[in-house]
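anyone seen this seq b4? input:
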Amino acid sequence: MRKLKIILFVALLLVVLAACGTEGSTDDTTKDANGSDEQSSGSEYGLIEDGKLIFAASGEFKPFSYIEGTEMVGYDIAVAEAIAEKLGLEAVQQQAKFSGIVTGVNEGRYDIAVASHTITDERLEKVNFSEPYYYSGPVIYTRPDSDIQSAEDLNGKEISVSRGSTYVEMAEQYTDDIPQVDSDVVALQSLASGHHDAVITDDITGQTAIQNGLEIENRGQLGVSEQAIAVNKENEALLEAINEALQELKDSGELAKMAEEWIGVDITQEPEELE
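predicted toks r here
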């Protein structure tokens, strides 16, 4: 009988050890709340630092990115953090001057940029872009007493724009007098204080500035633009993952909710759906 008990004990021990071995041989994935695989390090994305999604924004473009306390907040920041969560990564924000952000992604200082970049041919030479995460459009802003009423009135005027923005090239269609400043908000504040004849910036930034008390007026929209996330050209895996995450956020309605929370309106739809 004692011999039989020993045999049974040894057999049970072998079963337990086999089970432990099976549990220890799992891959590097965990399960999220929905039971789907979630990468623990993101090593397949070629990140600067495993487990972290380092993203750049200007912090000078309210309500898209601005400083509150010691951190950047805003719509761009919320989108970046939501994507990081979808990829199972820690979002790490880096504040940088807007004019140097695309170069930073190109040179590998940031994994991505979520900084309201408009997709342009010039930028596509340096980085890849995700699907758009919002749509906007350039607008002419002036002081209420200005004689500028439309684009035709911009010829030869002093038009201020943010340095490194697509509005520089747009302003060049009308004038050579184009003071460039560090942010759209600075340009609008300077305009309201009596400097420059006009500012070209996006519709949403101008509306927000007016809501915040700046005495400026919209004198006409110059087009529609697509804003997207910049990714290093050599990182196709990360670009694909970001596009998948964005699609999930769109399909679930989360992206629209973030826009409404930070901007006050849904800016995530195709232009024809906004009309």
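DSSP finds ten helices and 16 strands in the chain. Residues 24 and 93 are 34 Å apart (CA to CA). kinda curious what u guys think
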